[in-house]
Design goal:
Helix 2 runs parallel beside helix 7. Helix content is 42%, strand content 15%. It starts with a helix and ends with a helix. It is of the alpha/beta class and 169 residues long. The strands form 2 sheets. It has a 6-stranded parallel sheet, sandwiched between helices. Strands 2-3 form a two-stranded antiparallel sheet. Strand 2 and strand 3 form a beta hairpin. The longest helix is centred in the last third of the chain and has 16 residues.
């Protein structure tokens, strides 16, 4: 897909949905001596969520298979209200969100990194994957970030969308 077409699609986005592990995190999980699960999140990605909301009036959502306290705490801090954890069928959850908030697939962007993101990526208006994503996600992504998951890939995609919205309006 050409960069011109990517920017055209990006100009329509109203909601950006992300996976967590491998996108917002470096795809690793850490355990403390007490068995507590720890995840590393990028502050750059957090600023991307804030910039999407403030500059482009785009909300952010999370759909993940994981059901973890660190993810819910991060979503709370970033004021992400569309938080869907423990989801095995992401494409079905996307349909439910679209019906509930009355939004079309062309108005949704998604960033994912693995085979469980493939179907949802095929259903949205614009999709991306981190630079270190698995081949399944790379194959269907409209845009492959130069940045790796957990190191600003979400922010890179967010900035592309923000810049497209600003230049289209």
């Amino acid at each position: 897909m050409s960069i011109t077409e990517i920017k055209r699609r990006a100009g329509k986005i109203k909601l950006m949905i992300t996976d967590v592990d491998g996108v917002l995190t470096d795809n690793g999980v850490y355990y403390s001596g007490n068995g507590e699960e720890l995840k590393r999140f990028s502050f750059r990605d957090g600023m991307g969520v804030e910039r999407l909301r403030k500059i482009a009036a785009i909300e952010t959502g999370i759909i993940t298979r994981e059901d973890s306290l660190p993810v819910s705490k991060r979503a709370e801090k970033l004021k992400i209200t569309e938080l869907h954890m423990g989801v095995m069928d992401k494409a079905q959850r996307l349909q439910e969100i679209m019906e509930r908030i009355k939004i079309s697939k062309d108005e949704i962007a998604y960033i994912g990194d693995d085979i469980n993101d493939e179907e949802i990526m095929k259903q949205v208006g614009l999709c991306a994957c981190p630079g270190d994503a698995m081949s399944f996600a790379r194959r269907v992504a409209h845009y492959v970030c130069t940045t790796n998951g957990g190191h600003g890939a979400f922010r890179e995609f967010a900035e592309l969308i923000i810049n497209s919205k600003i230049n289209n309006n």
